[in-house]
């Protein structure tokens, strides 16, 4: 029902924009960005070759390695330890107002001449929250009882998620502000798309690697079979 409702809203609003919104014919662009797909990739390649852009791309491709495991695995580990998935999903609801308000607050600090300062300041706190998430996963089995988990446990999880959202959005808004600031207005769309794509890749590949490494790095013990190892999936099944 949720997806159906917002899907209908999306279709109606975009249709109204298509039908009712008219282009301003008087304003013509001074220069076309590109003439075709070949020109677009040639332009992207020339942008990437610039030393400053290359350095920045390397920065944002590797900046999120430190907290990739905490971001990608914490929720899965909490479910593995017995926290109901529906309870974790409900905790996302109070995050929505926070996610709306945070960019409005953070944008005041990223509007200046050095938007990346916010990114740098938020990074140590996000790394520390990774340790806090690890402690949360370790602590979870000790507070579980027959009826489930106490209210104070969910309060701690909610507070942890809220603090994580603050650091996440501080870094996200700062990167977006920097990309908008440095992009050449004549090729703004191409420039922004390139930098945003690299930024998204910088968040996705470490999470993929972290998820892939979970099983090999997890220490397992076999209950009732001392001689048997459970290091691999096949051994665990045996």
Automatic annotation (TrEMBL):
A Pfam family hit: Acatn
Protein name: ACATN protein
A molecular-function term among this protein's GO annotations: acetyl-CoA transmembrane transporter activity
Membrane topology: Multi-pass membrane protein
Transmembrane regions listed in the UniProt entry: 6-22, 43-67, 87-106, 118-139, 151-175
Compartment list: Membrane
Organism, scientific name: Anhinga rufa
Gene Ontology CC terms: membrane
Organism lineage string: Eukaryota, Metazoa, Chordata, Craniata, Vertebrata
Main location: membrane
GO biological process, one term: acetyl-CoA transmembrane transport
InterPro entries: AcetylCoA_trans_1-like (IPR024371), AmpG_permease/AT-1 (IPR004752), MFS_trans_sf (IPR036259)
Record's keyword terms, sorted: Membrane, Transmembrane, Transmembrane helix
Domain of life (superkingdom): Eukaryota
